[in-house]
Batch of 2 targets.
Target 1
Amino acid sequence: MAVQRTLCIVKPDAVEKNVVGEILRRVETDGLEILALKMTRLTDQQAQGFYAVHRERPFFKDLVAFMTSGPIALAVLEGDDAIARWRNLMGPTNSSEAPAGTIRGDLGTDIERNAVHGSDAPETAAVEIPYFFNATEITAPVEALAG
Ligand code: ATP
Ligand code: MG
């Protein structure tokens, strides 16, 4: 199975609830490696750029307002099949319907305030990780990646 990297965002609702540590504990318990980690607060421009794929959707303005409403935590995760593993830990988009045991089910609120983000494909991760992290901020060399 291929070693992958994925972008993890702990969204403003989860930072506000003081569950950054709980979310990272689940990441570590699953065996994913945290290669980079920082707190920041997104500008309007950064949030709009990050979610540009959704710019025509009716919820886009609300989503940008939510994502800029407070600090977030950003992490780069690595492991075998990391993209699917992180999304399995996250659970489905709508926290109201996400099963118990998933991060969104346990710690999110609704379809918008859903605690976490994860890249959805290797191509997405390859854009999302450098959107927030310089190569010097990531602890392992890119050469370690397969494929
Ligand atoms: P993310 O990209 O944040 O990991 P996702 O891939 O599960 O989430 P997307 O369809 O990419 O879901 O939606 C991006 C984000 O937009 C969601 O996580 C959620 O915060 C918000 N969102 C999605 N659909 C809706 C909706 N119908 N109403 C309000 N907000 C929504
Ligand atoms: Mg998405």
Target 2
Amino acid sequence: SCDETSAAVVDDGRIMLSNPIASQIKLHEIYGGVVPEIASRMHVEAVDAMVDQALEQANCSIDSIDAIAVTQGPGLVGALLTGVAAAKALAMGRELPLIAVNHIEGHVSANYVAHPDLEPPFVCLVASGGHSHIVSVNHYGSYELLGGTTDDAAGEAFDKVARVLNIPYPGGPLLDRLADEGDDHAYKFPRPHTEGKYDFSFSGLKTAVINQAHHLRQQGVEINAKDWAASFRRSVVDLLVDKTLSAALDTGAKRVAVAGGVAANSLLRAELARRGEKAGLQVFIPPKRLCTDNAVMIGSAGFYRLMAGELAALDLNALPSLNMFG
Ligand code: KG4
Ligand code: ZN
């Protein structure tokens, strides 16, 4: 759906047999962000090889595959179209059921692969480069939106603030590492206010952080990048954890999970585990490789759609703005 091409073989929605990922990050780095045209072209080049690798690594042939799941949206249209076309070709050629999966639902489902005992209901924070939601997972495939960002996604905020520190795209992971060595009390950043109890806003924080950096530099004051990164990371993580735990506790949830690229953030992982457990919740955190974009999470979500008999037709189309809660 964005800048990763991936295919996976998943057994019963839970067991990952393979999950190769071709990342295009290096190609987009010089532009400071994902260039959709380049992404589409690279997906076309990589998709068949990823499917072959997924089968090979799972040590199985296409004959033992029962169904094909694919990301229908949200995401970049050219990327989505490549995946949808490849999945349709496989489904048609092999006479297999085709299943359409929402990318965000895929992120949530990474938790099923990572935690074989986790079952709904649970509350899940989904924080990625394009989306930030707090979701109540009531049953498999049944989601209720409790809150989310009113403007930028959490990952987007990380990436934009990282740029000010001259960290290459995508800045999130590198800013995270830099922050590990910094003092998170060194700089004071605003705590954004939102109307909705479980909503958060990053646009104001991001702008304040970027403006403050420019202001200091104009005055000839050197910014301590490690402290800056640590202070910013602390603001974002506190906000995400506060809102997620409030939503979970207020709705009577017993379990809380996290998903999406930002769930790879080391402070977010540590704080959600620490504060969640202190509040009496069971906390589920997938390994980092299952937090960022991958195909096994799509396969897992697809399995539960297949079990519910929710199949897609062969005229399936990519939907760049597909909404999971509509
Ligand atoms: O879920 P994902 O792989 O792709 C989207 O669906 O957007 O998320 C990518 C986002 C990027 O913004 C990236 O900077 C952020 O996740 N990210 C992180 C970390 N690892 C990835 N943000 C903060 N800390 C990290 N360790
Ligand atoms: Zn994603």
